[in-house]
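As a next step, the fold was encoded as tokens, giving this record:
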Amino acid sequence: MTCRYHDIHVLIFFFFLPVTASFVQDLYLILMQHATTWVIQVKKLQQQLQEETDLHLALASAVEHCSSPSSSSPGKLPDKQALH
């Protein structure tokens, strides 16, 4: 982990602040708000990844179905129920 110039100044600034109970509580609340935001973002990204994975699998199945010699209609995509 690298420490940038700005980070060092922030650390020095916090070092000289009086550490009171309310300061620690405020810092805790700020960190928890960020953590909550990150959790929400991760869940959204996981959902997006799942949707993209499902789409990829459906497309791969459709291509495989259409390219198989036993396909009755080579130009027609399979029904949605046939993919599941």
The radius of gyration is 26 Å. The chain has a mean pLDDT of 78. DSSP finds two helices and no strands in the chain. The first helix runs from residue 5 to 15.
